[in-house]
Amino acid sequence: MQAQSPSLFDLRRQFHQQLPIRLAAMYEHFQRTDASLWLSEESAALHRGIHDLIGLAGTFGMQSLSYAARVTEAQVAEVVRAGIAPDETTRQTIDSSLNSLRQLALSRLDHDAETPYPPHLNARLDAAPLVHMLGNDPVQNETILRVLREAGFRTRCFKETTEFRTALKTSAAERPAAVIVDHNPEQQSKNAPTIAELDLDKECEIPIIVLSETDDLAARLAALRAGARHYLRKPVDALRLTEILEELSNRQPQQAYRVLLINDDPLQLEAHAAILRCAGMETRTSTQALRILEIMDEFAPEVVLLDVFMPEAHGSELAELLRERDHDAYFAILLTSADTDLARRVLANKPAHDGFLSVPAHPKQLIGEVTIQARRARQKNTLQQRYQASRYELEREHTTINQHAIVSIADRAGNITYVNDKFCQISGYSHDELLGQNHRIVKSGEHPPAFYQDLWQTILDGEIWQGEICNRRKDGRPYWVKTTITPFFDNQGRPYQYVSIRTDITDIKTAEQRLRLAQRALAASNSAISIVDARQADRPLIYVNPAFERITGYRQDEVLGKNCRLLQREDRDQPALVELRQALTEGRDAKVLLRNYRKNGDLFWNQLHIAPVFDESSQLTHFVGIAEDVSESLKATEALEKSEERLRRGQLYANIGTWEWDISSGQIYWSESIGPLFGLPKGDLSTRYDRFMDAIHPDDRQAVNDAINNCIENDTEYNIEHRVIWPDGTVRWLQEHGAVRRSSEGRPLQMLGVVQDIGDRKQAEQALIDARDAANRANQAKSDFLSSMSHELRTPLNAIIGFGQLMELDELLGETHRDDVREILNAGRHLLDLINDILDLAKLESGRLSLSLEPVMIGPLIEECLSLVQTLADKRQIRLRHKKLDAAVAQSDRTRLKQALLNLLSNAIKYNRDSGDVTIEVISLGEERLGIQVTDTGHGIAAERLPELFHPFNRLDAENSGVEGTGIGLTITHRIVAMMGGAVHVESEVGVGSRFLIELPQSAQPQPNYRSAPSSSLSSTAADVMPGENLVLYIEDNPSNLRLVNQILERRKHIHLLTAHTAELGIELARTRRPDLILLDINMPSMNGYQVIKVLQSELDLKTIPVVAITANAMPRDIARGKQAGFAEYLTKPLDIKQFHAVMNRFLNRNPVSPMS
Questions:
Q1: Which residue in 773, 820, 828, 962 is deepest, having the highest Cβ count within 10 Å?
Q2: What is the largest CA-CA distance in the chain?
Q3: Distance CA 196, CA 210 (A)
Q4: In 10 A of CB 1070, how many CB atoms?
Q5: Which domains does the chain show, CATH number per domain?
Q6: C-alpha–C-alpha distance, residues 775 and 808, integer Å
């Protein structure tokens, strides 16, 4: 033993050396226990000293001394329990016992105590204990032995009992830590081993484990009585067998058990620690009980050995303290004491410890008990760590699921009992809104009833349901979830809850939809789209869309896996292929134009754009190609280039150029043909807006600038003629047309236009103007001459006709002379009619014939005309017929319409055959027009002569017919009707007759209160207005104002004034005459000026005519109201004649004139 455990030997020697001192100290404490010196502390100290001696003596092999000390301890314990000074008898008894202890100690000091350790202790503490297996089942033996070897045990197998006994009794043989016996009562006749046959020495204490197929009570009792420690039924649980062997062998783990020992006796403390260290344990010792918490935190022991009786604190108190502080920790507490009875009484009500170890304890017992407690503590710690790890993992998994998944639990009725935050976040409902509700609260209606029937049937059958569900948020928006629903069943097989875990896949669904759309877009694209695998050496095609098949003629299965070079066939020397190969090698974009060939061999031009695709590690994986068949586009481009060249040449030949003005930068770009138009060389030029304006004639710059601004601001067409001054001083006329190109927001970006030299046209126009002015002057001179001559001829005609009438009344005049006088009178009257017609024609041509337009009843007017020509018709027996139209009313001048009708009726009678017919008929020509038709049965007019019919003084050879006439009646009729807004039409057939139709504007019934004051005066008609002249309508109810404006404008030969004394008449005239300008009074009786302009602006044909107000309402608010109502200008009375002329010039596009010109 000394060689095996020198530390224990040293401690025993120290104990022998200290024993006299210990005994002397105990006796000193005893001396202080008599009544005169009684102190309870002394009796307690004496008790502790004897208590420690029991353990130390027994530990170091002095069993007699230990036993004697135990007897003495019982005597002292009674004194301690009594708490009073012992009587004399008790003192004598204790004194005698203490003397016996001294005698025993002295008698053993010079002798070695026998060792308390069995010789096989170290072998049994081996890290790989030996286990014997006795049995004749080879399969079972091999299985068990393999498991034990894997667990770190050494094994030896015996098939027969004799062999086992022989090996065991060999002196040199190692004793096994345990023996496993495979016992089968039914096979005893076949030499099956039994426990009785093992013939084991009872003192060797080798534990036996029996394995048996029998599990009845008799078999177990038999094994127990035969010495078996454990009885296991086959088939054996290998893990359980291993655990039993671990306990029986006291085998220490590779990581040593940690044991803390607290005892106030250093020798006792170190002795126990040495034994445990000998068993392979790690120990920490302390004689200071109050340092236990500090040591616990530092050392973290798995077993704590506490002496019960210590001066600073009892072991039970420390146990309670440790359990209260470290209630979650797993460590065992063993209490040690020599006084078993007193210790158990002390500990009865304080079960904070895990075991009690009586000292002195056999080393085997000490090691075994500590090992068992340490193993349990470590297992508990391991389980606790696993539990904590599992709990942590579950918490993290739960947190992860809550962060990622939508979780809910419903009871058997489907009512929600739990939802996580994610459920609330996704659905938009709060916990309170969801709990107690059915999941139908988020039902979207997306799925049919059969979908939910299948779901419920699946989970009611006890199966897990998985699928995708469309739910609806609180705000009505749908969301998709991937769902797993697990049913939970009770012992009766009934579901009691359903756990649903969902993943929000709305984004995935949206992405899938977008992907499907993208796939459909790829399939529907007109561009040929292809994808090649860049990771393979030949870069094969892995995808082509239908457009690729349509353009190339190859089917998908014919090209997948092949290189795109098949489209070039043998045409491999294209420069674009060099760029394409380089881009493929470098992994970059490229855009090339290739000559490709369809499957049928047809050539087509392919505009190809390739783009590389990289993975997450920036490695090139694919190329995407987008190709267009640009064959037709190239042809169109070539044709466009040719067209542009033709346009360029055409512009040069036509002296036309195009320009483009960048409004923001002010830069102007000209085509090459514009240079010569501005006196500059040919060629594309660029200039700025200010330089362009510098080239324009100073008198035209403002007009050009205004036209450009109006085009930009009001989006009107830019169309202007202006002059430019060349660098050499030459002035040329140009015409420009242009328009503005705007952004999507309407912001002007560019102005585009054309410019043309119109110098030759301007010269021709000026020549035409000069010729027209000369013709007008000649015509005016003719009209003035005729008017003057007709006036001069009336005086002599008055004498001729007057004296002729006197001679006709002379009764003495002979018949011959009377006939001569009649000829003179007829000739005079004919000459007078001719003069009147000439005068009317002169008035028409000079613009001085006045008309008064008003509603005229046509029926009564025709009757008047027929009565006037009846005598002429009777002379030739011509019948006059009138086909009336009830309530026919025309807008006309009654006197002049009567003149026109008389002309037509007179001609119809004069140029008719005797006993012929003349019919006058009123017909409707629609809602707004009516006609007066005069039909005769005369000789008719040839169709080719009809265009000459209305020329003045052209009688179409009627001068040879014997019928008198001037040849100007129809001319006057035609012009008068045109002035009234009507027209004259004629149809004729030789030998049948002619039909003349007067077409006039229809009017409402005339009102009896129309004034005969100058209600309307007309200088000319719209139809008779010459180019460059203007028609002005003045609507005014005051005659004096009408006369004033008439006198102001009568000297302006180009202005023809049309007047109306009522608003209604003015509106009607505006509709029928379409004047260039309307002058309008504000204050009128039936309709005011604001009502009139509202009517004018509501009609499409009238809304563009400028309207100028002339009124006495001159307050600022009146002027503002007039502007807001839409008046182009607002003039107040009395009129400023200069201002009035300026307004007329502005709206009639006239140059400024003198008010008197």
A1: 828
A2: 224
A3: 12
A4: 24
A5: 6-108 (1.20.120), 126-249 (3.40.50.2300), 258-389 (3.40.50.2300), 412-505 (3.30.450.20), 525-629 (3.30.450.20), 652-757 (3.30.450.20), 776-845 (1.10.287.130), 847-1001 (3.30.565.10), 1030-1147 (3.40.50.2300)
A6: 46
Q: What token pair was written down for 281?
A: 């344990």
- Show the tokens assigned to 411: 């009871």
pLDDT over 80 at 173, yes or no: no
Beta strands in 282-401 (DSSP E): 282-286, 303-307, 332-337, 355-358
Q: How confident is the model at residue 485 (pLDDT cuts 50, 70, 90)?
A: very high
> How many angstroms separate the CA atoms of 721 and 739, rounded?
15
Q: CB-hemisphere CA count at 13 Å for 1005?
A: 5
Cα separations in angstroms, 448 against 464, 476, 827: 20, 19, 111
pLDDT over 60 (residue 959): no
3-state secondary structure of 405: strand
Supply the DSSP symbol for 1061: S
Using the 8-state DSSP alphabet, how is residue 443 labeled?
A: B
For residues 597 and 568, the answer to whether their CB atoms sit within 8 Å is yes
The mean pLDDT value of the chain amounts to: 82
What residue has token string 């990581």? 255
SS3 335: strand
Cα dist from 425 to 399, 403, 502, whole Å: 15, 11, 13
Encoding tokens for residue 236? 């054996």
Angle 137-143-145 (CA atoms, 0-180°, nearest 5)? 95
pLDDT of residue 127: 64
Total Cβ atoms within 10 A of residue 1149: 9
Long-range contacts of 791-796 (CB under 8 A, 24+ apart): 791/839, 793/831, 793/835, 794/832, 794/835
Rounded Cα distance between 1027 and 1050, Å, is 18
Would you place residue 803 in the very low, low, confident or very high pLDDT band (cuts 50, 70, 90)? low
* Average pLDDT of the residues in 614-622: 91
Q: What is the mean pLDDT of residues 708-737?
A: 89
Structure tokens at 505: 């896949």
Sort strands 1055-1060 and 1030-1035 into parallel, antiparallel or unpaired.
Answer: parallel
State the amino acid at position 900 in one-letter form: A
| Residue 362 DSSP symbol | -
Please, which residues have CB within 8 angstroms of residue 67's CB and are 6 or more apart in sequence? none
Closest CA to 464 of 419, 495, 508: 495
- Provide the β-strand partners of residue 993: 989
Please tell me the distance from the alpha carbon of residue 1121 to that of residue 1116, in angstroms, as a whole number.
9
**Start-to-end C-alpha separation, the chain:** 158
Query: Distance between CA atoms of 983 and 497, rounded to whole angstroms?
Result: 100
Whole-prediction pTM value?
A: 0.39
Give the single-character DSSP code of 463.
P
Q: Which long-range CB contacts under 8 A does 321-326 form with residues at least 24 apart?
A: 321/292, 321/293, 322/292, 322/293, 322/296, 322/352, 323/352, 325/293, 326/296
Distances (CA, A) of 971 to 244, 947, 952: 147, 12, 6
Please say whether the beta carbons of 560 and 583 come within 8 A: no
Residue by residue, DSSP assigns 243-261 as HHHHHHHTPPPSS--EEEE
Could you read off the pLDDT of 570-613 as tens digits, one per residue? 888 898 899 998 999 999 999 999 999 999 999 999 899 999 99
Nearest to 183 by CA among 212, 158, 162: 212
Q: How long is the chain?
A: 1157
Bridge-based pairing of strands 282-286 and 258-262 is parallel
CB 676 within 8 A of CB 654: no
Q: What is the mean pLDDT of residues 113-125?
A: 46
Bridge partners of 943, per DSSP, are: none
